[in-house]
Write a structure and sequence with these properties.
By secondary structure, the protein is an all-alpha fold. It has a domain of about 325 residues: Sodium/glucose cotransporter. It contains 26 helices and 2 strands. Strands 1-2 form a two-stranded antiparallel sheet. Strand 1 and strand 2 form a beta hairpin. Helix 5 crosses helix 15, helix 9 runs antiparallel to helix 17 and helix 14 packs parallel to helix 25. The longest helix is centred in the middle third of the chain and has 52 residues. The radius of gyration is 24 Å and the shape is globular. The termini are far apart.
Length: about 575
């Protein structure tokens, strides 16, 4: 390429970022801001419009938005890093979360819709009562809306800094300034667009990001001479291709069991809270809520990961000595992509970055506006004032997220930190919906215990993740149940109000009897649907892997099983919940 290019993107090659690539990137950024401005008027009408899109979303749009949010710029980099250090089996760290996601889809999602709350945090004072409930709601608004939100935005920003540093041959300081501009743009359209604009933008961003990742995988494999050539060139590293470890693998096998057997239900998001619940509550019906959750599970775990994994394997061959293996994904991209396609791929990573940041900002602002300001500071605030507070909250959260970036080095390590400090909470949050005896003190106890024990284990032991997580789970859950039995249950009035509105199934006999309402046993069918969806998604993952790496017989059997299991699950999700 000639010297008409604008920015050098790779020091080791005489390659310049072509104006065509820059034009694609700038056009995408301009379109994004324009889209936010287009939706500004409707989003500013009320907090219901700004945070819940007037509760009119179809399942495919809500579910795709959740998928887009979980696909940030950090995701392919972290997957490439996991593949380089642990092989494909390293992905069980997050594949184990299939179970809690489908539990949320079949057991809880329609209950979120019935609750009618604006934020998932509002459910606290519907399910619990008195000062403990108010304190828990305030604590969660600050803990999840600010601190945990900042951690997520921090690792997403960190990934974007790595991408900018490599892609544009910038110093880390220069990358920070470019990131600040991208962050400001994202804040801008989030302020304007509200949830509906964010979700519609997410839909476009997901399509662009997924297409980009598939295209990169195809070109990277082609550059290696095909999949068979890649497998041959892995040589002594062919163990990286294994899908599941065996008992003879020692610590790797025990880590796998810890992920699937402990982390999945204890630290996973078993009730679909946070931005997931925000999308679910914005759907138009309970059926849409269930289908949105199931579509998210299928797309997130079974459809998206393989292009990233393949690029991660290419990076292992091409750059075996990387100090930071998370850089491998970007280096492959810069090496194999031609002009125009490079701009498209960079735009897709920007899309992935922005789709997560905009959601974190809108969701976090919903906590600060609805659960902090409107609940505790100014309950009589007008809708216009609350929208102003919402937009100021977006700006404040953006600043906190930017600061969090400065304290991080690794995306995957940040993922593990978040899983450890929330170890044990997943079970209690699920039981909130299934068992009347859980009270506000149960949640306070498990959140406090997991945070304290995570730090104790880190300081006083040498346990590596995920074994540290297992210890935290088995220390924090007894504390939570002990506190539950030592504190009185919620009042009859509070429990009846919740039962009448949400109509949960499960262990609610005393409440149903006191309210004069029929008891709804949970039954086995929802659990069969959970099992079918879980097995179907895992069969899809395995079938794809076996087909890619030369085992078509097992691949075909796995895909047939996947169709059967997922067909049963989709039929169940499409049936009106009881």
């Amino acid at each position: 390429m000639g010297q008409s290019g604008l920015l050098r993107i790779w020091p080791s090659k005489d390659v310049l970022l072509n104006p065509i690539d820059l034009g694609i990137i700038l056009a995408y950024l301009a379109a994004t801001l324009g889209w936010g401005a287009w939706h500004a008027r409707s989003a500013g009408a009320s907090t219901e419009a700004f945070f819940a899109a007037d509760r009119k979303l179809p399942w495919w749009l809500a579910g795709t938005s959740i998928v887009a949010t979980t696909f940030a710029a950090d995701t392919p980099l972290a997957i490439a890093g996991l593949v380089a250090t642990d092989g494909i089996i390293g992905n069980w760290f997050w594949w184990a979360d299939v179970l809690p996601v489908v539990i949320g889809a079949f057991i809880v999602s329609h209950l979120w819709k019935r609750s009618g709350v604006l934020t998932d945090n509002e459910i606290i004072e519907l399910r619990y009562g008195g000062r403990p409930a108010a304190a828990l709601r305030l604590f969660r608004a600050l803990y999840f809306g600010v601190l945990r939100n900042a951690l997520v935005m921090g690792w997403v920003n960190l990934a974007m800094v790595k991408i900018l540093t490599l892609a544009f041959a910038l110093s880390p300081d220069q990358s920070i300034w470019v990131l600040a501009g991208l962050f400001a743009l994202t804040v801008g359209y989030t302020l304007l667009a509200g949830l509906l604009g964010v979700i519609l933008t997410d839909f476009l961003q997901f399509g662009l990001a997924l297409a980009g990742s598939v295209l990169l995988a195809v070109l990277a494999i082609s550059d290696m001479g095909g999949l068979s050539s890649l497998i041959d060139r892995l040589g002594g590293e062919r163990d990286l291709l294994r899908l599941v470890p065996g008992p003879g693998d020692g610590e790797v096998f025990w880590a796998f069991l810890a992920y699937v057997g402990i982390k999945s239900w204890s630290s996973g998001n078993t009730e679909g809270n946070g931005y997931t619940a925000q999308r679910i509550m914005a759907t138009r019906s309970e059926r849409d809520a269930r289908l949105a959750s199931l579509w998210y599970a299928i797309a997130h775990f079974a459809i998206r990961p393989w292009p990233w994994i393949l690029v991660g394997l290419v990076a292992v061959v091409q750059y075996p000595e990387l100090a930071d293996p998370e850089e491998g994904y970007v280096r492959v991209m810069l090496d194999v992509l031609p002009t125009g396609v490079l701009g498209l791929l960079l735009a897709s990573l920007l899309a992935a970055f922005m789709s997560t940041i905009d959601t974190q900002l809108n969701w976090g602002a919903s906590y600060l506006t609805h659960d902090l300001y409107a609940r505790f500071i100014n309950p009589d605030a007008s809708e216009a004032r609350k929208v102003i507070v919402a937009r100021l909250s977006v700006i404040g959260l953006a600043a906190i997220g930017a600061l969090a970036t400065l304290s991080m080095d690794s995306v995957a390590e940040a993922w593990k930190l978040l899983a450890t400090i929330s170890a044990g909470t997943g079970l209690i949050l699920l039981l909130r919906w299934l068992w009347w005896r859980i009270n506000a003190w149960s949640e306070i106890a498990v959140m406090t215990a997991s945070l304290v024990f995570a730090n104790v284990v880190d300081v006083f032991t040498d346990l590596a993740f995920p074994f540290s997580l297992v210890v935290v789970v088995f220390l924090s859950l007894p504390v939570a149940f002990l506190v539950t039995w030592m504190t009185p249950p919620e009042s009859s009035d509070v429990l009846q109000r919740f039962y009448e509105r949400v109509r949960p199934a499960g262990a609610w006999a005393p409440v149903a009897e006191a309210a004069g309402l029929p008891l709804k046993p949970l039954g086995w069918r929802p659990w069969f649907e959970v099992a079918a969806a879980t097995l179907g998604i895992y069969a899809t993952i395995a079938g794809t892997g076996w087909m890619l790496f030369g085992d078509p017989v097992h691949a075909t059997l796995a895909w047939v099983a996947a169709l059967m299991f997922l067909g049963f699950a989709v039929k169940g999700a499409s049936t009106a919940p009881q």
